[in-house]
Amino acid sequence: MWSRLLTLCIVLALAAAAAWAFWPRPISVETARIASGRLVVTVEEDGVSHISEIFHVSAPILGRLKRVGLHVGDSVGEGQTLASMEPVAPGLLDERTRRVAEAAVQAAAAGVVLAQAGLAQARANNDFAQLDLERSIQLSERGLVSTQAMQRARLAAETAQKSMEAAEATLQMHEQELKSSQAALIQGDAPVAGPCCVNVPAPVSGRVLAVSSESEQVVQAGTLLMDIGDPDLMEIQVDVLSSDAVRIAPHARASIVEWGGAPLRAEVAHIDPIATTKVSALGIEEQRTRIILRLLDGPQTRVGLGHGYRVTAQIVVWEAADVVLVPLGALFRTGSDWSVFVLEDGVARLRTLSLGQRNGENAEVREGLAVGETVIMHPGDTLADGRSVVAEP
Questions:
Q1: Are the C-beta atoms of 248 and 290 separated by less than 8 Å?
Q2: In this structure, what DSSP letter does residue 324 have?
Q3: Which residue of 16, 68, 184, 230 has the smallest Cβ count within 10 Å?
Q4: Does position 159 have pLDDT exceeding 50, yes or no?
Q5: Which residue has the higher pLDDT, 321 or 15?
Q6: Residues 63, 89: contact at Cβ < 8 Å?
Q7: Which conformational region is residue 343 in: left (phi greater than 0), alpha (psi within -120 to 50 degrees), or beta?
Q8: What is the pLDDT of residue 351?
Q9: 3-state DSSP call for residue 61?
Q10: pLDDT, tens only, 178-218
């Protein structure tokens, strides 16, 4: 009897231990409390700092450029001499070029003679056709010429007139070709009259952004010498996706970050009405639109920010105050709906939400949650509706 009682006690103890071992324990979860606050939705893209007005200074004449004493970063004032140039005569022709030019002159002269002969022939034909037309008109008045013969005479006279006009135009063309060929033979060995040097002034006050070459050399008229700009007239250029550009309003608020200093205030000054195709780093073609941002803070707030520096722009597309916010880490999909697990008396309860705007951290709750409720963050696959949970401290 005692042995049976002992066996029964052992069996009951083992059953209790097994039940305790396999009994579902509460899952430890991370939670967050729902609160109301301000939600700001932004479009964030990389941008480039850019001086709004850049002046390209070029050589005004053909000449020898004196060595440039200015360097990138130097300050210049309006009217200050940037470079000096000594006028030079055009270079002499080499033997091969001279012979080619002489042959072109002879060919052009022959063309003029040929055109003159053609014009003389066209004038003779025109004179004959006009006289023949006059005779036909006189005979037609007497009834001695048929209507068809009269029409042929009139057509011949008009054709001869147009041929003479074409021959005159051809002669003018060949005469101009002759002048052009003769100009190619002009030698540049005559001394150039005028001042010794021509100074190139600065169009505005600012700083030197680029110098094409500092060495002395002969340059053609129109050759780029340097770029001048005022760093105080700084703006930000950002290329955004065209789908984001339609959400951005003129004068929208923006912030410039990750440039090496404190965030800078800015606003949208211009939105390009066109988009261009660009290839992303992943090789995907994208339609992007250029946005120009005007900096609102003075130059003293962006000391060190130069032309062409990389920045990050955050452009506000939507904002509202006193909205119910839910962390994105608590959201997950159930079919086509957004859902969360709400902590109620130690139990996880599944709840479907209606969401509005969202940013990288929070989403606007329109229906489904109230301020003060607690949601479970980053729910795992083992969490289900009605499961016991315990909040981590």
A1: no
A2: E
A3: 16
A4: yes
A5: 321
A6: no
A7: beta
A8: 93
A9: coil
A10: 888 877 776 554 444 445 688 899 988 999 999 998 888 88
Tell which residue, 288, 293, 306, 308, has the closest CA to residue 256. Answer: 293
d(CA 317, CA 326): 20
Range among 6-15, 136-145, 369-378 rated most confident: 369-378
Helix count (H) and strand count (E) of the chain? Answer: 4, 22
Expressed in percent and rounded to 5, the helix, strand and coil fractions of the chain are 30, 40, 30
How many CA atoms are closer than 13 Å to the CA of 201, on its beta-carbon side? 7
Mean pLDDT score of the chain: 86
Task: Report pLDDT digits (tens) over 61-73.
Answer: 888 899 998 999 8
Q: Is 28 helix (H, G, I), strand (E, B) or coil?
A: strand
3-state secondary structure of 238: strand
Distance CA 382, CA 378 (A): 12
What are the DSSP calls for 130-148, one per residue?
A: HHHHHHHHHHHHHT-S-HH
- 316's tokens: 């506000």
Question: Quick one: CA dihedral 198, 199, 203, 209, positive or negative?
Answer: positive
d(CA 354, CA 365): 6
Residue that has been written with the tokens 């955050």 in this structure? 314
Q: Where are the alpha helices (DSSP H) in the chain?
A: 2-22, 95-142, 147-183, 242-245
Of 235, 244, 228, 242, whose CA–CA distance to 270 is shortest?
235
| Residue in this structure with the two tokens 């480039």, named with its chain if needed | 48
C-alpha torsion sign, points 158, 164, 168, 170:
positive
Residue among 199, 202, 225, 200 nearest 76 (CA):
202
Contact 38, 322 (CB under 8 A): yes
Least confident of 144-148, 275-279, 382-386: 144-148
DSSP character for 388?
B
The confidence score (pLDDT) of residue 150 equals 79
| pTM of the complete model beyond 0.85 | no
pLDDT band for 245, please (50, 70, 90 cuts).
Answer: very high
Determine the 3-state secondary structure of 380 from DSSP: coil
For 103-135, the pLDDT digits (tens) are 888 888 888 888 888 888 888 888 888 888 888
The two three-digit tokens of residue 140, written as one number: 């037609």
